[in-house]
Amino acid sequence: MLAVTAIALIAMIALAIPIAAALGLLGVGLGIAFSPVALDRALGEIFWRSSNDFLIVAVPMFILLGELVLRAGIAKRMYDALGHWLSWLPGGLMHTNVGSCAMFAATSGSSVATAATLGTVAMPECDRYGYNKRLFLGTLASGGTLGILIPPSINLIVYGLLTSTSVPKLYLAGFIPGFLLALMFMGTVLVACLIKPEFGGERIYSSWRTRFASLVDLLPPLILFILVIGSIYVGIATPTEAAALGVVGALVLAAWTRTLNLTMLTDALLSTMRTTGVIMLIILAAVYLNFVLAAIGLTRELTQFIESLGLSPLETIFAIVVFYIILGCFLETFSMMLTTVPLIAPIVVSLGYDPIWFGILLMVLLEMALITPPIGINLYVIQGIRDDINFNDVAIGSAPFVFAMALTVLALIAYPQLALWLPDFVSGL
Questions:
Q1: Which terminus of the chain, N or C, has less C-beta within 10 A?
Q2: What average pLDDT is seen over the chain?
C-alpha cells in the first residue's frame, strides 16, 4: 500500500498534473482501492470543516498584507534605508538583500512574495555597482526563503493546523533560528567577498547623517511587525485577528504615504484572491488525502515500517532529514509539507521530540527545497524577474546558501533550545 501510494503520487507529478488535482485524485483512488466503505461521502464535511477553520482565514489576510506592503512602496524605501546601513560591509548590497528579505518576511509570511518583491527592487543595483551576478542572485533566492521561517509565516500556521500545535509558540520558536539563518547568509557573502574581493562590486559609502535620516523608512515595516506579532503576545488578538490588524495597518500606512487608490487596492485584492485560491485548493485536497491515509491504515503502516528499521531516535531524525532533502528536489514545498507532515509528525513525537522543534526544523528543510534544483520555486521566481537571468546562474549562486541551511539543520538537531528557548521563556513569565 505504501509503495502504491508513492508510485501513484510520483507518476502524477511526472505527468505535470496540478498538485491539488493530484492529491485529490490520489485520495479518491486510495479510498476506492483500499477502503471497504465509501470514504468519498465524507468529502463535503471535510471540505467544509477545513475551509471553515478560523485559523485558515489568516492565510488570505497575510497574503493581502504582503501585497499592500509591496504596492505602497514600503519595500523599496526599506531596501534603500537598509542599504545605507549595510552596504559598507564586504559584499555591499548583497547584505542589504538578505537584511531586506528578513524584514519583509516579518510582514509577508511568504517566501515567494519575499523573493519576488525584493528581487524586483534589488536587481537594478547588481548591474549598477558591478556585483558578481551569480552570488547576487543567490542572496535574493536564499534570502527570500526566510519568509516561511521568520514570523508571521503562512507555512507555520498550516503546520500548526495539521499537528494541533500552538501557532504563537511556533512563531516564538521561529525567531532565533530565522535571524540566525539570516546572519549565516550574510556570513556566507562576507567569506565569499573576502576570498574574492571582486565579487563585492563597487564599494558604497553613506554619511552618518544620511543613515540616520533613512531610519524613518524602516518605521513602516517595524510598525506592522509590532502590530501583528505584538498583538498576539500581548494577548489581545489571535493569529487570524492579528493578520487582519496588519492589513488595517498597511492600509493606513498606504493612505499616509498617498499610495492608496482604487487601482492599487483592486490589484492587491485580485492578486490575493488568485494566490489564496491556489493555496486553498491544495490544502483541501491534502486534508482529504490525509483523512484517507489514516482511514486505510497507511499512517500506522508507515510508523511500523520505521520502527522495524531498528534505528535510534537520532538516526531516525537524520533519516527524515535526508528524506526531506531528496523529496525537496522533486516536490513543491507547500504540497510536500501538506502530504508528509500528517505521516511524519506523529513518528517524530512518538520518539520523544517536541512538535514545535520539529516544525522549525521542517521549515529550514523546506527553505532548502525552495532553492534546490530542479523544482526550487525561488530559483524560478528570481529567474523570472528579468529576461537576461539564466536559471543556472541562480542555481549556482544559491549553492553556498544551501550549505548554510544544512549547518542550521545540524545546529537545531544538536541544540534544540535554539528553537525551544524563547517559547519556554515566554511561557514561564
A1: C
A2: 85
